[in-house]
């Protein structure tokens, strides 16, 4: 019976980590899909990274994101 005290927490940790990974990937994909259609989000992200995009750069970034195929599960 003592092995239950060791095995169950380890299995729970593994299942939680795998589940959290897939939830994180799903969330990130949804954010990228939203960003493709919202130039303001792209501009905000660029400013957070220290860049200031002009109109031509913004158009190029949008086209790159639209042409990029996100892999599906």
Automatic annotation (TrEMBL):
Transmembrane residue ranges: 6-28
Keyword Transmembrane on entry: yes
Listed GO CC annotations: membrane
Keywords noted in UniProt: Membrane, Transmembrane, Transmembrane helix
Primary subcellular site in the record, as a coarse category: membrane
UniProt entry tagged with the keyword Membrane: yes
InterPro entries membership: UPF0154 (IPR005359)
Membrane topology term: Single-pass membrane protein
One Pfam family in the UniProt entry: UPF0154
Subcellular localization: Membrane
Assigned protein family: Belongs to the UPF0154 family.
This protein's name: YneF family protein
Originating organism: Paenibacillus paeoniae
């Amino acid at each position: 019976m003592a092995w239950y005290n060791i095995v169950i927490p380890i299995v729970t940790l593994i299942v939680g980590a795998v589940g959290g990974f897939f939830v994180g990937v799903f969330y990130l994909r949804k954010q990228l899909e939203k960003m493709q259609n919202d130039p303001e989000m792209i501009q905000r992200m660029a400013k957070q990274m220290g860049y200031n995009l002009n109109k031509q750069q913004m158009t190029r970034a949008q086209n790159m994101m639209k042409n990029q195929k996100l892999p599906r599960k």
